[in-house]
Amino acid sequence: QVQLVESGGGLVQPGGSLKLSCAASGFSLSSCVMRWYRQAPGKEREFIARISTAGDSTGYADSVKGRFTISRDNVKNTMFLQMNSLKPEDTAVYYCNAACLNTWGQGTLVTVSS
Predict the structure, then answer these.
(1) Model confidence over 31-58: pLDDT tens digits?
(2) What is the 3-state secondary structure (H, E, C) of the chain?
């Protein structure tokens, strides 16, 4: 069964950091371009980062560029999102996506608040 499971969300103060993980099962992560999205309350889901199959090319939304870093470990079949300098407007449910299978995880909630 093809599955993506996000983890690592939680409550963090403004300016803090979190690292999200996206663990894949049922398929090889190395075969897919992978993406992170997020959905804030009352808003549409938005793209925030992508990474190529080999991990040598990345892209970011302007809202997170310079603060977030996407990476992957194809041996561990896992993708990551390092989030630094977090702001209250980063509060959202974060989802990972396997583009080649159009598969989504269940999401992990990140809350940035003092």
Answers:
(1) 999 999 999 999 999 999 999 999 999 9
(2) CCEEEEECCEEECCCCCEEEEEEEECCCHHHCCEEEEEECCCCCCEEEEEECCCCCCEEECCCCCCCEEEEEECCCCEEEEEECCCCHHHCEEEEEEECCCCEECCCEEEEECC
